[in-house]
Amino acid sequence: MVAITDVAALAGVSTATVSRYLSGQQVRAAERIRSAIAELDYSPSRTARALKSGVTYTVAIVVPDITNPFFASVVKGIESMSRQGPYHISLYNTDEDPDRERQVIGTVVSQVDGIILAPANEQDQTPDLVRRAGIPLVFLDRTLSQGDGFDSVLVDNEGGGAAAAQHLLGLGHQRIAIIAGPLDTTPGRQRFAGFTAEAERRGVTLPDEYRRISDFREAGGYRETLALLALAKPPTAVFVSNNEMTIGALKALNDMSVSVPAEISIIGFDDLALAALLSPPLTVIRRDAAEQGALAMRLLLKRLSGVRERPRSITLDTELVVRGSCAPPRDSTATPSHEGALRKKGRS
Amino acid sequence: MVAITDVAALAGVSTATVSRYLSGQQVRAAERIRSAIAELDYSPSRTARALKSGVTYTVAIVVPDITNPFFASVVKGIESMSRQGPYHISLYNTDEDPDRERQVIGTVVSQVDGIILAPANEQDQTPDLVRRAGIPLVFLDRTLSQGDGFDSVLVDNEGGGAAAAQHLLGLGHQRIAIIAGPLDTTPGRQRFAGFTAEAERRGVTLPDEYRRISDFREAGGYRETLALLALAKPPTAVFVSNNEMTIGALKALNDMSVSVPAEISIIGFDDLALAALLSPPLTVIRRDAAEQGALAMRLLLKRLSGVRERPRSITLDTELVVRGSCAPPRDSTATPSHEGALRKKGRS
DNA sequence: CTGAAAGCGCTTACAG
DNA sequence: CTGAAAGCGCTTACAG
Lengths: 348, 348
Description:
CATH architecture of the largest domain in chain A: 3-Layer(aba) Sandwich
Number of strands of chain A: 12
Structural class of chain A: alpha/beta
Order of helices and strands of chain A: HHHHEHEHEHEEHEHEHEHEEHEE
Number of helices of chain A: 12
Radius of gyration of chain A: 26 Å
Number of domains of chain A: 3
Oligomer: homodimer
């Protein structure tokens, strides 16, 4: 390994001067140093720098589930933005487990310059650890009840939930249900709130059995959909509040031979690669995951560059993508608004 | 930050003794050191260790596209296996770009203990860099022409390609096409070879216009499918050799209102979350991505623990998952084998 | 602008 | 088994 002493020797200066050159200061022997570095193919040791100055040039990304396409896209966005700076990315997958998360944050907090975190739930005590360590943290997609003092990049979950409710109510549905994520997560809570509040505003109160609180996982979506179908009065439409649960819900409907949208309408949160190819194509609330990741990284880079402004919270918009999985309820006597007519039937 | 000197002082021993205790050696003051560590909540600085002994406890994962669900699952498998050891994961996304890959490997090679790499193509010169650095590397899913001397975890691509050909030929298809990945990647080359060789063996030679070499991306699959459909004599069945291209192919068939499997049969490589919910459900060649990642990490951990055996290459099996997207050709006069009858129609 | 020197937190021969 | 000491590759006051 070639070290700074080698460069200094070749250039005929002290290591201090080489170090200064490296940090962009004016030095007399700049040209000699430059060529020495080139000749030796020298690159400074990140480790030594880290030990001396506490800067590790590493950023930790902590997500609940990397196989969820949303988080995969988020990570891609973060990774591509990270090339703007000298930072490397350490990836941690918590499997939605708060214990694992605490453990990760605990070990990572002294070994990275910053953290991007999508916490497993809102009760986590991680901010204390991070605050004590004095490094910047950006919340991604999810915050904590005590998350004040940190940047965050969220999504207008309430707006998305409300848009889903509006769409279904606009088609004439009265018996609308929600399969929500855990209410102790930001998106679980907010999508639930947005959906039910909008329904309420339009005079529809969801009965308790139409409010299914699940776990953001495929199996949960499957289970809750079966439960809804087993009701004496099943809903005529359902909003499933994340992609994994939507897959489970679709499988349940498929297994029970319930036809969509004739017997039940379904709208998901987060788009899926094949959503447009399903029969019928799946109507969803969409947002830009890669952009969300890139923005989080940008906020973090700004903090890392030393900016000391007050914490910022960015909220991205959602978008209703009307495809074919929602239609007026079969036994509807109400006149559906025009909105529901925007359907495109898919085949493959 | 609490350092080893603090622990030594509190325990009344030298830092050398604490260091020995930490590395599992017998020391007299073990109990005093243990409680000092507990009281101070001490954890050794990875950075200082790295500088002193060259061990970084970091492993680099370099993949072409983290948003490809295959690689997302691979990374999950690696991550969960990494908890077996003290290693952290640095993630790099190359976007299938050999230049970016070379750059990543170049900077990473002196800063990590080992590398898991899925190279962008087989001509890469990265092994030289890595060999010079003397750190272990495990090829994942893809190797290099000059990849000798390194461990690898691959998949029986030829077997998978052959199984696809067998399935289609067994149904009575003669006009079978392939949309392959780049022939300078391991899976691109091997799936192509396995498919065409098996067809050949059964007396079917693919004409040039049925051999479409593409790029493993959705747009490529879309484009090549359109090209196949535009032929004077389009194929009656097509094998699409990765998941992203399969999505593109399905979109093209959908857009052109070509009905599957009546007008054309399609079989993909790699399963998709919604594959079983399509109409018809998609027949695919499947393999276990998370397992592949976990195995790669296990091989790497073994090398990192100092094992010096000769390089190992593990090849995982593939599995034909028959769903509903393949059927005998419409104008077939041949008697299809029983194989093609295993169909299950899906709805949603 | 420059160099000598100290020091970041560890590990490891070396001598006892 | 143990401690004093050197050193990993840098950065940064300090003095010139």
